[in-house]
Specification:
There is one protein chain. The chain folds into three domains: 254 residues, 3-hydroxy-3-methylglutaryl-coenzyme A Reductase, Chain A, domain 2 (Alpha-Beta Complex); 107 residues, Alpha-Beta Plaits (2-Layer Sandwich); 50 residues, Helicase, Ruva Protein, domain 3 (Orthogonal Bundle). It is of the alpha+beta class and 440 residues long. The two termini are 31 Å apart. Helix content is 48%, strand content 18%. A four-stranded antiparallel sheet has the order 3-8-10-9. Strands 5-6-4-7 form a four-stranded antiparallel sheet. The chain has 16 helices and ten strands. Bound molecules: (R)-mevalonate. (R)-mevalonate binds next to helix 10 and helix 13.
């Protein structure tokens, strides 16, 4: 009998690696082979890499860790995160614990509707061309769907068209732009290939209906029909820390939110923090993280000014966090079937749909942002960050096993987290207490 599934694994970070893997195997029921895949020792082989991309010469790895304590819509999730930056995983885990104690995240997501774009030129009168396209909507949809009958059989496919006339970038002397949007339900896939195929497929009909010439036929990464949203509500009293009251911590977080709303320079950094969580999870789950990034930042600019993807307000003695962003994700297609570590990570995550994945990812982004603004609005991030950074510095200086922690602690105490200092400390510790540097 395995343990009940929970993402609350107290003391996990202090366990040796082997014990952590044991705990995960017990909680998730992943098989020994799947646990090997998760560990990544036999991850993506260079032979697979050679089939995935061109000019392959090897495989590039990143550290894989788990964001703990996540609870979204009453369900627990162990969040796989691939990232090189120390403190990202500790921060999300810490934030998720506070939110979980206040009832967890509540999240929702739109249907998986993606936008494909077909650019038309030389169409003559835009009103006439628009009318010709709109009046042949059913025919355009039928042609689009004929290129992917299996998606239609699964309940997805092209659903609607929209025609947009945009002013010429050159001003009055240029031809306005005519853009056909094909709205496609991609179900459990991110859908890039399907969308592009359908856009290319309808191009000849678009040309004959408008008498124009089609140029680009490609998906839009501004996937604003496929938004995910998450919220959390934390009693202000639960925020007290660092010898500070909950009210002052909440005030710092609200001020951080106001700063990001008013200033694109701050909003960019605020959103970088959000994307720390989202990208790490996206990479570990085999998503196209460049597409997610492009969509997130374009959405952040939707009213003409670059703004934060998440906000924090005080409401009836609670700190309320909200995030909304496009998340074009898939649980089928792309590298998901090929990459053994991605498959194991998705199985551990236990999501059954791309929508569910996007809800958890939105909550992870909000949790990541909470941890950052909580520290920034109070004691600053350097203290906590340096403690974690010190471990990397200790490793770079040659410390291994038991020495990593010891050297890192000494670096923090010395207030001087530098490789040279770490080498000095390591050498002096080993003189005083000689034992193999490669111990565990
Ligand atoms: C660092 O990776 C992310 C932060 O800069 C985010 C923020 O400033 O909100 C701490």
């Amino acid at each position: 009998m395995g343990e009940v599934f929970t993402s609350r694994l107290a003391g996990f970070h202090k366990k040796p690696l082997a014990d952590r893997l044991g705990a995960i195997a017990r909680v998730t029921h992943l098989s020994a082979a799947e646990m090997d895949d998760l560990r990544g020792d036999q991850g993506l082989t260079v032979e697979f890499a050679n089939q995935m991309i061109e000019n392959a010469v090897g495989v590039f790895s990143l550290s894989l860790g788990l964001g703990l304590n996540m609870q979204v819509n009453g369900r627990d999730y162990l969040v796989p995160m691939a990232v090189e930056e120390p403190s990202v995983i500790a921060a999300v885990t810490f934030a998720a614990k506070i939110v979980r104690e206040s009832g967890g995240f509540v999240a929702e997501a739109d249907d998986p509707i993606m936008i494909g774009q077909v650019q038309v030129t030389n169409f003559g009168d835009p009103t006439v061309a628009t009318k010709a396209l709109v009046s042949h909507k059913e025919q355009l949809l039928a042609v689009a769907n004929s290129f992917h009958p299996s998606m239609v059989a699964r309940g997805g496919g092209a659903r609607d068209i929209e025609v947009r006339v945009l002013p010429a970038p050159e001003g009055a002397r240029g031809e306005p732009l005519l853009v056909v949007h094909l709205l496609i339900d991609t179900q459990e896939a991110m859908g890039a290939n399907l969308i592009n195929t359908m856009c290319e497929g309808i191009a000849p009909l678009v040309e004959s209906l408008t008498g124009g010439k089609v140029f680009l036929r490609i998906l839009s990464n501004l996937a604003d029909r496929r938004l995910a949203r998450a919220t959390c509500r934390i009693p202000v009293t639960a925020l007290a820390d660092f010898d500070m009251s909950g009210e002052s911590i909440a005030e710092g977080i609200v001020q951080a939110s106001r700063f990001a709303q008013a200033d694109p320079y701050r909003a960019a950094t605020h959103n970088k923090g959000v994307m720390n969580g989202i990208d790490s999870m996206a990479i570990a789950t085999g998503q196209d993280w460049r597409a997610i990034e492009a969509g997130a930042h374009a959405f952040a600019c939707r009213d003409g000014q670059y703004r934060p993807l998440s906000t924090w307000t005080l409401e009836e003695a609670h700190l309320v966090g909200r995030i909304e962003l496009p998340l074009a994700l898939g649980i089928v297609g792309g590298p998901i079937k090929i990459h053994p570590q991605v498959q194991a990570a998705l199985k551990m995550l236990r999501v059954t749909s791309a929508r569910e994945l996007s809800m958890v990812m939105a909550a992870v982004g909000l949790a990541q942002n909470f941890a950052a603004v909580r520290a920034l609005g109070s004691v600053g991030i350097q203290k906590g960050h340096m403690a974690l950074h010190a471990r990397c510095v200790a490793v770079t200086a040659g410390a291994r096993g038991q020495w990593v922690e010891k050297v890192a602690d000494a670096l923090v105490t010395a207030g001087h987290v530098k490789v040279e200092k770490a080498r000095e400390i390591l050498a002096s510790m080993m003189r005083d207490e000689p034992s193999p540097v490669t111990g565990t």
